[in-house]
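= Paired protein data =
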Amino acid sequence: MAQFALGLAAIGRPAYITLGRARDLGADRSVERLRADAETLLDAAWEAGLRWVDAARSYGRAEEFLAGWLRARGLEPGALTVSSKWGYAYVGDWRLDAEVHERKELTADQLRRQLDESRALLDGFIDLYAIHSATIESGVLDDAEVLGQLAELRASGVRVGLSTTGPRQGETIDRAVELGAFDAVQATWNLYERSAGPALARAHAAGMTVLIKEGVANGRLAGDAAPHELAVAAAERGAGADALALAAIAAQPWVDVVLSGAVTPEMLASNLAAREVDWDAALEERFEPLARAPEAYWRERGALPWS
């Protein structure tokens, strides 16, 4: 049975591409406000039994918020699994209207720099360190210097992984499996974007831990934005559309970890109601028509505004 984990992409910085942030976070996006919100959210996740938290260097101050929460709660390494990622740098200057919020650089220099930064905040807590949004086109999986550094990190006892993005996720995952250099893969899979499923099944069979991100498609499979048929089916089961969408992921036999991108305890509780949903063959058949061509899905995602 897949476990649920908390991803900090949407709570560690003032702007992100999730729908409804003005409603969920309000107007005050100061560092102090989001730090307090992140700590409250982490408390709720801990109380709900979640023992995996995922961050990244590009998630604003997410690693910093997490490190402060760990210290304040007196938690020791091993109390929960902490994963983080390198490759993007947050450059949004804590502004909602920043022209650019993050910048990607998948180089050995960036890996060295960002690993040092992550360790400065989370020394001893990092269980898994991953390439952020690896793609075939980027060439990072053929960069001998990057792969060498990751091998050294792996030999030190830290698992290494990759996250994937874009319509060619499957090719990227298969290349990672072929290399045999990775312990985990984090990919987008949801009721709209199912294309990576076969490759993720192969990764799982090869012994890699499979984490699923963007399970509610950046809010497009939740709340008022959910398609009518999903909202109706969720109401029939006394759950939210988000819970049904996440239950679909948890039901896949090759999924190990389902990431919630909640930013409030209430949203987290709604997401975690997925643990009580019985996703069956009838639901699977009912929602197969929601799947979109990968190119169309990623075009739509790319057009989402930072808010």
The domain at 3-302 is CATH 3.20.20.100 (TIM Barrel). The chain has twelve helices and ten strands. The CA atoms of residues 88 and 104 lie 4 Å apart.
